[in-house]
Each structure stands twice: as C-alpha cells, then as structure tokens.
Amino acid sequence: MLSTIGSPPGAIKDAAGSMGPVVTEGNLIVGAGARLSQMATMARAARVEIGDLVSCTPVREVPAELLPPGPDRLVLKLENQQVSGSFKARGAAHFIARLLAQQTPAGVLTYSSGNHGRAVAEAAARQGLAALVVAPDSIDRVKAAAVIEAGAELVKVGPTTDERKLRAEQIAAERGWVLVPPFDHEWIISGQGTLVLELMEQIGTFEHLWLPVGGGGLAAGCAAVASVEMPECQVHTVEPEGSAALARSLQADQRLHLEETVSEADGLLPLTIGELNWELLSRAGVAAEVISEGQLMASLSILHQRLEILAEPSGCCSSAPLLAPRSGAALPGGTHVAVVSGGNVSSERLARLLSPQ
After folding, report:
1. Structural domain boundaries of the chain?
2. pLDDT tens digits for 244-281?
3. pTM for the full model?
4. Which pLDDT tens digit goes with each residue over 119-162?
C-alpha cells in the first residue's frame, strides 16, 4: 500500500515541526534551477564552516578485474572512515554549527536508526551540549554504544521512522530542546553536499556519481552540488527493493509514503523521502536504481573480502549496481564514483551476513 503526501509545491516544514525554535536559513521557495544553485552555494559555505569538524575521507580505485563491462574506472569515496563512522557527521556538524551561531539551546535531540544519532551525539558533545537520540529497538549495538559513549541519552521505540519522529517531537516539546532532523533540512542537506566538493578536489570532475538513499539528505545535497559544479555528471540514486521510496515516487511523479520498508540496509528505511529532499531530487535529473537484497549482500562481500573495506550494509548500497550488476545490465563508460556511506556495524552481525547461506 502507498499513500501520497500532499504538500504545495515548494512547501518547507519547520525542522522542529510545530514546536521549538525556528531554524531556517532563508527562503528556498524558488524555481528549480535557482533552488539547486542556492543549495550548492550553501554547501560551499558549509565546506568552510565544518572543515575542522569532519575528516577529508580517502578515495580508493577498484581494481579493473572487479569492474563489470562498461565503466572505465570505479572510485570509492570512503565515508566509512568519516568522523562518527559515516557521512552523517557532515550534516550534523553543519546543523549544530549554524544553530550555535543563532542561539545556545538547552539541548538537542534527534531520531535515527543509528548513524545520524551517533553523529549528532558526538557533535553535541564537542560543543558541550546535552543530547538525546530516539532509536529503534533493533539499533545495531555498535551504533547504540557510540551514542551512549558520547554522553547522549538513548530512547528506544518501535521500528519505523514515523514512530521515532513522533517520540522525538514529544520530547522536544516537553524539554524545549531543538530537534536536529536526520535529512529534511537545508543545513543537513548542504552539509552532506560538501562531499561532492571534496571529491572534486581529490579527483577532479567525473561522469557518474552513485549515492544511497534513505530519507534523501546525502542524495539531495550531492545532486544539488553536482548539478551546478558538474552539470555533465549523471547522479544515480540507489535503494533496496524493499525500501524504494524515491524510485517509486519518481515513477509516480509525486512524493509517496510507503506502508513499510524492509532491508538489511537498516540505515535506508524511512517510509518517505524528506519534503525538501524530494523538491531537490525531483528536479535534479537523477537516475533511480533499485537493487535486490542479493546484490546488496554481494556488494558487502566484495567490499569486505576482496577490498578489505569495513562497510555496513547501508554503506554497500551505492556500489551494488557496479560490483554486483543485474544480469544484462548495461552500464555506461567513464569514471564512476560510489559512496561507501558508513561502516558502523557489529562484528556479530557482519559475520552473520557474510556467512555462507
């Protein structure tokens, strides 16, 4: 079952919903090209603002013998080696830096399957802020331990993003704390977009960029920057078949809300794409790819066993169409870059996923 989400074109929600301080950068109710350009401009500013707060993560070229027919090169951007173990550190650091430029909140909180929660907890700790993370009962123990180690409170609820969001909004209203959204905010999106600027400094321009999609923060930020800085670059979004909110929304030409999402890629299970994220992605000309769980597990195996890259299942999503393409898939030439988005996974879970079935 699917439901449409009715919102007027260009509508943007306050990041904290109906409560808490308003934290917005400016008016993004503009045309498609201008909106993408404005987000790219914000990402360039964010690159300077968070330069000392996040890592410049390495890139690694995949050996030619592992490439399918078509691509000339495949380069992996290793965000699993980022601060907090994932790309989420970029958006979290940017949001909190911009927030503190406006006010000193009593505390910050968020809702997350794990990586964004860890990133917010650690960014808050660096600034001496109290923090709380609402997470699913099924949160990976490595992610849960990192949140607690950073000094944040951890509140566990049901499995869906909607449940986590509702509980986080309730706590924010009770405490007067600021909610740091996981993906649907311009500070988060532009923070994630710094990844493309960093990539261009490392390897120059390239023809294809492959990005995982959950709520769409990374994809929206990177697509906006790429559309301005590398207009000839094709951005490919990749989702598990059991959680393909963006692909199905693009096909329907409207933002959809899934009834449920299922995948081992636990960081990519929101029921819908963020509102602002949808506005950007639906206008950026992205090519949506949906992968099977078999492709996801094959990508995980290749990254770990052939390339010795510690990636969590969500972090293997973007490389799956290239390392484990569907039979008969036709891939274009040129230089392809795939983002290994995170590496926060317990050894027990990893062993289970990599064991022969």
Report:
1. 31-86+185-354, 88-179
2. 999 999 999 999 999 999 999 999 999 999 999 999 99
3. 0.91
4. 999 999 999 999 999 999 999 999 999 999 999 999 999 988 88
CB-based contact 53:82 (threshold 8 Å): no
CA distance 128 to 47: 22
Instruction: Please provide the CATH number assigned to the domain covering 31-86+185-354.
Output: 3.40.50.1100
Across the beta sheet with 153-157, what order do the strands follow?
153-157, 130-136, 107-111, 178-179
Burial of 52 from C-beta contacts in 10 A (0-12 / 13-18 / 19+): exposed
Residue holding tokens 């490389």?
319
Kind of pairing between the strands at 130-136 and 208-212: unpaired
31-86+185-354 and 88-179 share one CATH topology? Answer: yes
3-state per-residue secondary structure call for 130-183: EEEEEEECCCCHHHHHHHHHCCCEEEEECCCHHHHHHHHHHHHHHHCCEECCCC
- CATH for 88-179, among 3.40.50.1100, 3.20.20.450, 1.10.3210.10, 3.10.620.30? 3.40.50.1100
Query: CB atoms < 10 A from the CB of 248, how many?
Result: 18
Give the C-alpha separation, 19 to 170, whole Å. Answer: 9
